[in-house]
Amino acid sequence: MNDKVQEAMSRLEQGLEQLLSEDAWKQYLQCQSRFHTYSFQNTLLILLQCPNATRIAGFQTWKTMGRHVRKGEQGMMILAPLLAKTSETTTERSLVGFRTVYVFDVSQTEGKPLPEVSVPRLEGDATDWPRLRDACPYPITEMSDLNGANGCFHVATERISLLESLEERHKAKTLIHEWAHGLLHATPDEDRVEASEVQELEAESVAFVVADALGWDTSSYSFGYIATWSGKDAFDQVKQSGGRIQKAANRILQSLQPMSPSQAS
Hints:
Helices cover 48% and strands 17% of the residues.
């Protein structure tokens, strides 16, 4: 299957490059870049103050995006680093403490709509679903609710959970995605990446490559999913992770090959 994997990788790279050149995606990713990634401590502070928060930014940042905080809204307090020069002979600043600042969720603002893009779930049946399910080395459980996720790989138990309500084609794609997490990210090794956005890019890239090699197209979902996680760097990161993606895709495809009589015995 290696030739098919190579062809699928080329389609993945070309598809991402084309997607990222579209005006709607450029505007969306430019908007997303304005929202900071918060530390674990600040994420907890935000959730304690606004459990349903989705997009967070400061008062002035919202203004630059054509939105304003509604009168009477209470900001969420978080901690921001306090930097200062530690010597009169240098211009470099070092961390000397923290200060409190206030941020607001998009639900507390009004004004110009934020750019949106669609990443629709796959629909329809998948003839490969039973074969994938039976070949997967990890136990699979279908659940009615996964807190908004379509699937999950549980590292501690090495089990996969899938959202029961998914249509078969999306369920099959999600299984490959979680299977890839198990192969690439469940056990520590010298090549393992820790950044969640890269892990998601790798897992979804494997899902696209395997599905493409099997003859079905997940690009309408996979390209957008990868771009929402990795932004404008998605194309470069796919090339950087290409060897890992191909290796995991080949392992999954090999698992689907029927055993020879000698192997079966």
